[in-house]
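hey can u check if this looks right to u? its 1347 residues, i copy pasted from the old doc so theres a chance i mangled smth
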Amino acid sequence: MRRLCQFLLFLVVICGLNAVHVNVTREHNRCLWMGQCTKNEITGGMYNCYNNTIAPNVTEGTELFDLLEEVCPWYINQENKNWTRACCDVGQVRTLQTQVTVAQQLFSRCPACFSNFMKHFCTTTCDPDESLFMDPGPGHVLNDTETGKLYIQQVDVYLTDKYANTMFDSCKNVEYPEDSSKVINLMCGGTDNCTAHLWLQFLGSPTENNNEAPFLMNYKFEEPGILNMSARDVNDTDFIPCNSSDSKYQCSCSDCPATCPPIPKYTVHEFPWWKASVGASCGLAFVSLLLFLLACLQGLCSTISARRKQVDQDVKSSFENNIRPSYGAVPQEQTATAAATSSQSRAKNTTPKDDPFYFICFPLAKVGAHLERNIKVVFYHWGKFASKYWFLVLLFATFITCGLMFGLFFFDVVTDPVQLWSAPNSRARTEKNYFDEHFGPFYRTEQIIIKANKNVSNYSFPAYPSEKIWNFSAVFQLEVLEEVLNLQNELATMKVPYNDEKGSLTNITLKDICFAPLAPDNNECTITSVLNYFQNNVTRLKYQKKAGFFLQGNASYHIHVCTRNPTSVMDTTVGFPCLGTFGGYIDPNVALGGFDDSGPLPNYDTAEALIVTFIVNNHVNDEDNKMAKVWEAEFIKRLKAYEPKYIEISFSSERSITDELNRESRTDVVTILVSYCLMFAYITIFLGQFRSISTILVDTKLMVGFVGVMMVLVAVLTSLGFYSYIGVKASLIVLEVVPFLVLAVGVDNLFILVHSYDRQLHKDNKAQSLSTQELMGRALGDVAPSLLLTSLSETAAFLLGAISTMPAVRTFSLYAGTAVFVNFLLQITVVVSVMALDANRQRQNRMDVFFCVRFEKPGDQLDRDRRGPLRVFMDGFASVILYKWIKPFVILFFGLLYAAAIGLMFQLNVGLDQTVALPKDSYLMPYFSELNEYLHTGAPVYFVIKEDFNYSIPGNQDKICSGAGCNNDSLGIQLSIAAQIPQYTRIAEPASIWLDSYFEWMDPVSKCCGIDDHGDECHDPGNSTCNQCLAKGETRPTEEEFPLYLNWFLNDNPNTKCAAGGHAAFKAGVPLSNDKKHVNASYMMTYHTILKNSSDYIDGLYHAREIGDSLTETLGHTVFPYSVWYVYYEQYLSTAKDMALNIGVSWAAVFVVSLLLLGMNVWAALVVAFIIQMIIVDMMGFMHLCEVNANAVSLVNLVMTVGISVEFCSHILRWFCSCDRPTRQERAKEALSEMGASVFSGITLTKFIGVFVLLFSKSQIFEVYYFRMYMLMLLFGFLHGLVLLPVLLSYVGPPYYHVQTKSPWKLDGQEVVDRSPSSQQNRDVDRKAQDYDDDHGIDDETEKLIQ
């Protein structure tokens, strides 16, 4: 330490030997310097000579006078030019002229800004009063030992805040046309939060990688505290505001917001716009509850009034006390009277006094009764035929289904999200196709996010000769950077085997597929990475610049410099540039993540992640992307196998999501198979009725259950094969949802068929003597209206969903509707035939499956009156919920539930998080998590002007450009205004206007456009052989010159002499016609604000289209916005409309089918429709609580819910309508008792078993959108079907209409009278009364006598 201190003291003494003490005289017209003396070895610039003499006069006509008049005209004394004073010589002015060349190119679009900029530097270079506001300070005037001249090593410049801010305000909004960023940010070290102080300090500091500052000019914004000195004030310099009334200096709106028209008032709404506040939702829920309760109260009052008018209370009492006693015997003398009363009560019909709509409803009921009888007749005869000729039925069904399933050879699945979620004729799809056709599709991106592992720590770097210590995060450690660079270079140079079109094997590399913006001049690939600050060179990465043993620069410090000024062509600290090998700059907001941006400046040194992005060319024809896909596959393979040492990585490629979705679909097969197996096991156990332990092997329904489940699978495959034949491609939603849907519906119907056969078999003693064909016909005919009702309702609901324009919903609707209908056909054919075979097998006491094994026939041990435990439970359950004091609370509960759901429904979010669609174990999960955490830039958006717009006409140019002289409502100005309110428009910054850059490139000041004597392009305008394209004073080409020079501009590479070349920035966005004389179409690019969730994206799309419509009106020509993600999120703009349309149409279809198949009973159909809409509303409300968003997947599930809900309602409602009990209370109780068990076991439990498996799926979309929604569907379907519906029917159920029809089948060869639309169910209802007659000796003759 002692030796170190001695060495430092030695350096101070050596440096101090050249320092000269000077006493500066400070007065008006007194200089501080004059001329240039010594070269600065660090910056390459020249130090100014110390000269504290009186400012000399500059004589008119001299070289210095002419230079001042050109560069600093403000210092020319216009009253007496010979009295012009200046503290500079020709060399200083020429140096200044060179130094401001780039600034002139950048700031010239705002004349006031550039004028103020020049006034400032002319002031610090030539002002005759330099000594009054500039001071070299002690020790900074040195003696050049070689020349003996004194020079100033650094100078303090004192300025007032007003001076600094006035100059800064005139320039702070000037745009850089090439990338629509602020010029001030580029000239402030690359920061997005530049201030006046930071700007001037950067401009005056050569150590901040600013070549234009030859030595340190230390700006101080305070009074100097030195005698006769004062800070330079704005009053001493005639600065011009950017909104000057002088048209010569006035800047455009995009460069000077003060000149913009007033920004209209706006209100920021969170998408979707139907989302209400919590208070509003609660208020809506309260109003809904109030209306619901008022409606219920009105219904209750009407019911009570109707009951008071009834005149048959005695009949009802006799019916309850005599005919159907619960306990005890009835005296024989009451038998005849009781039987007569029974007959009268059963024959009781609604009268006009009871029903004001009698004269409408009763004729409809008659029509419905005859329609239902005809349906029963058809299915009765078909059941007998299928049972008798089972071989022909099975053969025919096998032939048809196998023929359709052969279409699976043409089966294809659409995995492209664009084709799934966007209709071919939708606006987003049309605009995407237009963009791809004219400009090429958006690039393919391969990205890696790198973090340092826990073993790498942060570190500090003391930069010599600065006294500041720079603190860097762990990712800037050399070992981390070196590992990342090695990985990056390995991927960039890896050779991947590829079979070309000719079949020959070749090796491809990144250069074969990458985007090279400056090709063919520069074929290097675009890789956005901080390692490209080192030109991807490991030697440069390891380079350290030292002064003795002091470290002046290293890798992390070079990154620090480049993130402040990414466009720097040379970092003088290390001696190489910041520009990437591809010729462009690396945006630190893209290449770094997780840095602190809470302060006035982003602190990139705190970045927690490095982001490496490879940009790959994309093609409209997917076949042309094969090479890229092969390379991407190897990219993924290498990164999966990579074993990091100091880093942690997550990554994604363009093909990653598609690959993971395909993998997910394969894993879903296991889930589906497990669900089918569990369903088969459940059917095996609960489908049969076991007489005793000894007959279990006979009473099981293994064969029936297996065939029933297989028919579900066959129906799905038949639907897939049919649509594969006609070229309708499937989607993953079809493969994931339809098998579960058809399984749920198919198993329900299987239970209903089996239970119907059992009821027919055990109806009475006579039924045992009937043939299997007869019983099967009756069983099928009995439930045919119910099966037809549910199946047609579901089929219609799904098929009508095909009217949706969304391809995913449309294909699902087609596949699902067809599969459900085919399943119904297979049930009434194959399943009925197999049931008949199984019934014969069981009658012969043969073992299930193994038919050759036959047992000794035991006695009939199955009591036909025995009610299973579930039926006993439903009897008690019906008694409880239909108790007179319980029913009001049931109504109140469902009213509260309904009102709450309405309020929650308006809190429902829209969108589908892409991570939900991925498997839980996907390698993309950490990538998307870190992308959201570290994202610091929004997505690009292009405003496209369609072809046939003439850019050569000056009037049209003024509608586009954003510089001085352009229209105040031009395209560029409107986008600039939009960027001023990003919280509303979601536009982050003004657009990059190629026309502005073209005019800048044409401007003679820029010295970019040159033409030789032969009319050819040259690149050194101003010399003897290369002339300026435009004469001095002109800023735009003529109409004839416009296309000629435009082609030159679009092929000119930007460089240090001309930064406005348009090759890299605009060539892809301004395609020319074949003759290079016309612009086919063009776009102006800007960026959205950071969008992190679906609501942000949807809102961004909506407002971008608002802006596009405004621009179309302004230009009188079509302008539309385009971003790569619009095509995915457009669907959500119309989510509410799509949901209302699809659900509404499905709901209407269910109503119509219910009306037709419920005996034309309008009342009953309305009850079904009402219950279903309550289920849907409750579903939508509680989706919000379950974090299920509104999107295509949930829409599919809601449409499915409409169809499935019919299952929970129709069976109980049909029984209620056909029951002739005297009161609604009794009809509702019997309907629930008789059908509740079938609905619970055959519908609720079967679906629950299939759905429960989804909880264990690896697919998140299965868990979120299928498991959660299916469970909600089951819960609300069960509650509304088995709780609310019976209670509602007991209050306002449809009346019973007595219609006499002939029986659809014959009993002992005699036609019997059918007293209701469902005579078979009616006889089942009256079975207890018949049993009572048998037990008490009332024979058929007695019954006839009574009648």
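Residues 1-17, 273-278, 310-353, 1307-1347 have pLDDT under 50 and may be disordered.
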